[in-house]
Design a protein that fits this description.
The complex is a heterodimer of chains A (705) and B (535). Helices cover 52% and strands 17% of the residues of chain A. Chain A is an alpha+beta fold and 705 residues long. In chain A, α22 links the parallel β18 (535-539) and β19 (553-557). The radius of gyration of chain A is 36 Å and the shape is elongated. Chain B is globular and about 75 Å long. With 535 residues, chain B is an all-alpha fold. The longest helix of chain B has 31 residues, at 129-159. In chain B, strands 1-2 form a two-stranded antiparallel ribbon. A two-stranded antiparallel sheet of chain B has the order 3-4. In chain B, α1 (2-31) crosses α7 and α14 (360-377) crosses α19 (506-529). The two termini of chain B are 26 Å apart. Classes of the chains: A alpha+beta (705), B mainly alpha (535).
Chain lengths: 705, 535
């Protein structure tokens, strides 16, 4: 399924191009991107000076033109990156719409029915729902009655009988009967709608870090505006005749954080669309930031840490039976057991390479199955004609003790029950061995967090099957990733403390809430938040909804109930709880990318000063020629090279903005130092090299020696 | 060389020891905003506040706090201005000098209230002893006490959750009565012992070959608070170059020590309350950047002797420490300094937080911490936090405004002074030297430093009024903004657990210094290139 909703559509470059042109509007920029607003103003000033004749000395026209063009391209690259990322994100989100099933509903109007899309239903509308159909949206029954399958909501597979006046839930299915329903809630703004509003720069509610960054960048721009403006007048009064407006604008634009200013919108949108690509829906930017800050995570044991079903891992023989006997007895008692536990017993026998003879297998066909029920708490088979069976298998040479017992009962003419089940239920009837002996073994098993099943043939105990919660493959990695990122996982389970502890230890979790009632999850979220922690909670049941709503990040599984999905601020469409690490990773990656490009942008300035300033000043002031460490060709080539670098670094970094800075779960300090070295120190050095190269190229192109 | 290093290390070490002792009461004053835990101090305080009508139980939010500060300071600005204008009528101890012009009086009043002490007059030739004592020395206690008080409230905002940051009058009186006044009295006595004059006679006539006038007055009492309070304004026009202000190597040594005591005590007090390691990290980053500045100031040797009495190294060291602490006193003329020393001095004032002036220097340092955390902190992959508190857009905005104020009030007036001909009027021509003098003047005013190339040359209407405004804005706007930052933090929930980018340890120490210098260089380097770098 994941593949099918991946984004395959071809890019519509015309649309992206037009959007990027529209975004060049100074009004749009002033509202959304203060840094680029200043750059476009710089473009207008130089352009106007070019258009009005007599403003610029003739020999400087080409230079003004070049500066003007590079300014324009810097802005355009920025709006292009924004338009591109918006387009991509929108396309991705659109592709998610298939998750919101469109249902055809029979709307009742004036005694006849018309077929409408479930989306168009409004509160107060009445619909008819026939057998086998799905309830389009929440409402109550005004006529008729039906058996409803609400398993997708409650997880309860037993059909529920609903009568007039009862509430029905959208997404549930009518199994038997026919009902008329009055709609009580509109389909309204679905989570996909919320997501779509997140990927448009103009409409998007900005997240805290983005608002702060915008303030910081505006502040820096303002500082450089003051610097460039006053520098112009100071240089003029100091007699630097070479200085002109274009140079000052060039200096200003070079110093302003145009790289991060240009890419900031794209980074934010791309961050959200990366989540979408992994089939995770974020309802708000705030949730994404909270996910990056989380330091506590509540994990359900069942379904997240364990497979959700126990499996047999060992046979313990009793009363001189050997393992093969236990295996055969287990096989017979489990043959009709279609639960995963039952199957796991057969799997265990196979993995132990114990072969069950065909004739033994045939016993099952000649006997009556005993189904598991809550009262008896055992299951197995009953052989009502033991002598006939004994005749059939008398030549078998396996497990003599097993054969002996069967023979004994056969001669007595008693029915033979081969059972496996709860120790409590079966222990009272045992007479072949000491009960204390069994109890001791059972205790030992319990202390290991495992569950025993007793195997019996009538009153004879044969052995014990040890069942165990199997932890999911890969969950250990998930837990260790979480811990490395500084997040404490807490396991929530209804199990007894001993079992819980064992599972937790095996998965590598140090904190457990055992014998948890639904309210405990909410209480834990609350408790940790009071201590000042940022908490992620996951869940899929209606029970979980309060905790999901209270948590800083509530992740609901798409398979979960509607209430859970409403309460959560993130939804995992693949319903894979262990993917929470991915959510955290992507959220952190978004912040790291913002920080890295900001640092890179500011670090760039150091080298830009050295490329522009000495070249501007040295003509009037030869004393500072020692600052001209790069030995660029001429002032014009130096400034143009810097401007060109300034403009092309934006498209050069678009892939980084869209993909995000490489992030893997590791110690935050390590992440920091690595990124600081790459984007901070690297950012300070890269322009030296790049500008020198562009300068050499320009010198060749312009024919300057 | 070894001698120089030893000298620097001993001064710093001695200051830190005394700073550590002073940091204890400072942290008490921050923590116990209402009643002090010490029985005796509490009794003195209660009695004092009863007389003054200060109610300790009234807590102020940042606006009320700032308003109280502004009102108190404004009263002194008005009083000082009027007194100086009419000193000829109001003085009861001579000499009978004429009253100052309004603009000079206004400039001087603001200069001393704002802890700047820029002097466009020559003390011994312009001010009566009454003016020196009633206006100059008195105001020299007001400025630093206001600065220290605001830093107490500032730190309190980070310390606990509350919707107030303290009571200005309580903080102010505690700073003045329990800290600044007693230490200043002790240091005055030490200075007298070291040979600084303390007398009510304005001058002595000496008849030798010709008739000589030796100007004197209560120099020791002015000198101690001048340095202890990071004021910097001299009794004499020539400041500590005058042997009556700074008679010997020992007194020179003692004066350097006095300048450092309070600025280094505040990060330690912060550490006492909010984590020893955090305090030490901040102190460490201050010391590292101080050493960078001192090395820079000494790296190019001045031409000839700059100070016959103290030698080149000590002469420059005194000036460096004075500039770093935004005191502004000098014991060797700025005109004799090498370009690297002037660059070092300018950067001390651009940064104004290593360690900066009493109280405010530390507040600026925290603004740098916030900017560092925000700019670099995102790379950790978490929302930036300081001491378990999220840095939200509001604090970023306020920090950026603080950071923006400084270049604005330095560069704009500098450009105006140069373009509009005010500079050429007093300096004759504009070149990289005279330009530097103007840049230095406004930088010194904006950073509330007070050292100046211009001296009494600056006594023109334009420079008096412009520097007065710059000093006023440079002092009070950032204090107001930084108190708002503190209030904003005081409303926040504290998170448990480690900070994403821990503000303690060697890594943060280096990052903070890196960002401090990076931001200062990015903002100001062009103006240094065409100034001292072109000499």
């Amino acid at each position: 399924m994941t593949e099918s909703i991946r984004f395959h559509e071809k890019y519509n470059f015309r649309k992206i191009f037009l959007d990027s042109i529209y975004k060049l509007s100074p009004i749009y920029l002033a509202k959304n991107n203060p840094v680029m607003f200043v750059v476009i103003l710089g473009f207008f000033i130089t352009a106007i000076m070019l258009i009005i004749p007599g403003q610029i000395p003739k020999y400087e026209i080409n230079f003004y033109l070049a500066v003007s063009l590079t300014l324009f391209f810097a802005v355009w690259f920025s709006t292009f990156s924004e338009a591109f990322s918006e387009y991509e994100a929108k396309a991705r989100v659109d592709s998610l719409k298939i998750f919101e099933k469109e249902i055809i509903a029979h709307k009742i109007t004036n005694d006849h029915y018309i077929e409408v899309k479930s989306n168009s239903l409004r509160q107060g509308d009445r619909v008819l729902i026939k057998k086998g159909e799905i309830v389009p949206t929440d409402g109550f029954i005004i006529d008729g009655s039906a058996y409803m399958d609400e398993s997708m909501i409650t997880g309860e597979s037993e059909p529920v009988y609903k009568n007039k006046g009862d509430h029905v839930i959208g997404g549930t299915k009518v199994i038997e009967g026919e009902i008329k329903v009055e709609i009580t809630s509109e389909r309204g703004r679905s989570f996909v709608d919320k997501m779509i509003s997140l990927v448009s720069q103009a409409k998007r509610p900005k997240s805290q870090s983005e608002i702060s960054l915008n303030i910081l960048l505006s502040g820096l721009s303002l500082i450089f505006l003051i610097v460039a403006g006053t520098l112009y007048y100071i240089l003029k009064s100091l007699g630097y005749t070479y200085v002109n407006i274009a140079l000052i604008i060039a200096l200003l634009v070079a110093l302003m954080p145009t790289t991060i200013g240009g890419l900031l919108p794209a980074i934010g949108i791309a961050g959200i669309s990366r989540l979408t690509r992994d089939n995770i829906i974020a309802k708000s930017g705030k949730a994404i930031e909270a996910a990056s800050d989380a330091d506590i995570i509540l994990l359900d044991k069942t379904g997240t840490i364990t497979e959700g079903n126990r499996a047999a891992i060992e046979f313990i023989p009793l009363d001189n039976f050997d393992v093969r006997c236990v295996a055969i007895t287990s096989y017979l008692s489990s043959f009709n057991d279609n639960t995963r536990e039952g199957k796991s017993i057969i799997d265990l026998i196979e993995s132990m390479k114990i072969e069950i003879p065909d004739k033994i297998i045939d016993i099952t066909l000649m006997s009556k199955p005993i189904e598991f029920n809550i009262k008896n708490r055992y299951s197995g088979i009953e052989i009502s004609n033991p002598s006939k069976i004994m005749d059939y298998i008398k030549d078998e040479k396996i497990c003599m003790k097993f054969m002996e017992i069967l023979r004994e009962y056969a001669t007595k003419g008693e029915n033979i029950k081969i059972l496996k089940g709860s120790v409590d239920a079966l222990l009272p009837r045992i007479d072949n061995i000491n009960k204390e002996e069994i109890e001791k073994i059972v205790r030992d098993i319990g202390e290991k967090g495992e569950t025993p099943l007793l195997l019996t043939i009538n009153t004879k105990a044969v052995g014990i099957i040890v069942l165990k919660d199997r932890i999911k493959t890969g969950i250990k990695q998930v837990i260790s990733d979480l811990k490395v990122m500084g997040i404490t996982p807490i396991m929530v389970t209804g199990d007894n403390p001993i079992t819980a502890k064992v599972i937790a230890n095996e998965a590598g979790i140090d904190h457990v809430i055992s014998q948890a009632k639904p309210i405990d999850k909410l209480n834990k979220v609350d408790e940790e938040q009071r201590k000042g922690h940022v908490v992620i909670a996951m869940g899929d049941g209606t029970n979980d909804a309060p905790a999901l709503a209270k948590a800083d990040v509530g992740v609901a599984m798409n398979s979960g109930t509607r209430a859970a999905k409403e309460a959560a601020n993130m939804i995992d469409l693949d319903s894979n709880p262990s993917r929470v690490v991915k959510i955290i990773e992507l959220s952190k990656q978004l912040l790291v990318t913002r920080g890295a490009v900001t640092t890179f942008s500011i670090a760039n300035d150091i080298s830009k000063y050295f490329t522009i300033l000495p070249m501007i000043l040295v003509l009037n002031n030869p004393k500072i020629s020692y600052l001209n460490i790069l030995h660029l060709t001429t002032p014009e080539t130096a400034i143009l090279a810097t401007m060109i670098f300034n403009a092309i670094i934006i498209p050069a970094l678009i892939p980084l903005a869209l993909r995000g800075v490489r992030y893997k779960p590791e110690n935050p300090r390590k992440t920091f130092i690595k990124n600081f070295l790459i984007y901070g120190i690297g950012g300070a050095l890269l322009p030296f090299i790049a500008i020198k190269l562009i300068d050499m190229l320009l010198a060749i192109l312009m024919g300057v020696k | 060389m070894i001698n120089f290093i030893l000298q620097t290390v001993v001064i710093m070490a001695l200051s830190i020891i005394v700073s550590y002792i002073i940091s204890k009461p400072i942290s008490l004053f921050i923590k116990y905003e209402k009643e002090l835990p010490n029985k005796y101090l509490n009794k003195i305080e209660s009695a004092l506040f009863k007389i003054l009508g200060i109610d300790r139980n009234i807590s102020m939010n940042y606006k009320q706090y700032f308003l109280s500060l502004i009102i108190l300071n404004s009263i002194f600005i008005i009083f000082d201005t009027i007194f100086l204008m009419f000193q000829n009528k109001l003085s009861f101890i001579g000499p009978k000098y004429p009253g100052l012009s309004f603009d000079l009086a206004f400039n001087t009043a603001i200069s001393f209230v704002t802890n700047t002490n820029l002097q466009h007059y020559i003390g011994e030739l312009s001010l009566s002893l009454t003016s020196q004592m009633l206006v100059i020395i008195t105001t020299m206690f007001i400025g630093p006490s206001s600065g220290l008080a605001s830093s107490l409230a500032f730190i309190r905002g980070f310390l606990r959750k509350s919707n107030s940051i303290g009571n200005f009058y309580v903080d102010f009186m505690r700073s003045l009565i329990f800290l600044i006044l007693p230490i200043s009295i002790i240091s005055s006595i030490i200075l007298v012992i070291l040979g600084v004059p303390q007398t009510f006679s304005p001058f002595y006539n000496i008849s030798s070959i010709t008739h000589q006038i030796v100007y004197t007055g209560p120099v020791a009492s002015l000198e101690s608070i001048k340095l202890l309070g990071n004021n910097g304004g001299g009794f004499y026009g020539s400041n500590s170059i005058n042997p009556f202000e700074d008679p010997s190597n020992l007194s020179n040594f003692f004066e350097m020590f006095l300048m450092l005591v309070f600025p280094l005590a505040i990060p330690l007090a912060f550490g006492n309350l909010l984590g020893k390691k955090r305090g030490l990290t901040l102190l460490g980053s201050i010391l590292v950047s101080m050493i960078i500045i001192i090395v820079l100031s000494e790296i190019l040797k001045p031409i000839g002797y700059i100070s016959y009495r103290f030698g080149n190294y000590s002469g420059i060291l005194f000036n460096s420490i004075s500039l770093l602490t935004n005191t502004g006193a000098i014991d060797a003329s700025l005109f004799s300094m090498s370009s690297s020393a002037i660059i070092a001095f300018l950067f001390s004032m651009f940064i104004q937080s290593i360690p900066g002036s009493i109280g405010t220097g530390f507040m600026y340092l925290i603004v740098y911490v916030l900017l560092t955390l925000f700019i670099l902190g995102l790379m950790v992959g978490k929302m930036p936090e300081f001491i378990g508190m999220k840095i939200s857009p509001k604090e970023v905005k306020l920090s950026v405004l603080v950071f923006l104020t400084h270049p604005l009030i330095i560069l704009l007036p500098t450009a105006i002074a140069l373009s509009a001909g005010y500079a050429i009027h007093i300096l004759g021509n504009i070149n990289s030297y005279t330009y530097t003098e103007i840049l230095y003047e406004f930088t010194s005013a904006a950073a509330n430093n007070g050292s100046s190339y211009l001296g009494s040359l600056g006594n023109t209407f334009f420079f008096n009024i412009s520097t007065a405004l710059v000093m006023f804005i440079g002092r009070f706007l950032p204090i107001g903004l930084m108190l708002a930052i503190s209030q904003s933090f005081s409303l926040k929930d504290r998170k448990a657990g480690l900070e994403p980018l821990p503000t303690q340890g060697i890594l943060f120490l280096l990052l903070l210094d890196f960002m401090i210098f990076l931001l200062a260089v990015l903002t100001f380097i062009p103006f240094v290139i065409v100034g001292p770098l072109s000499w």
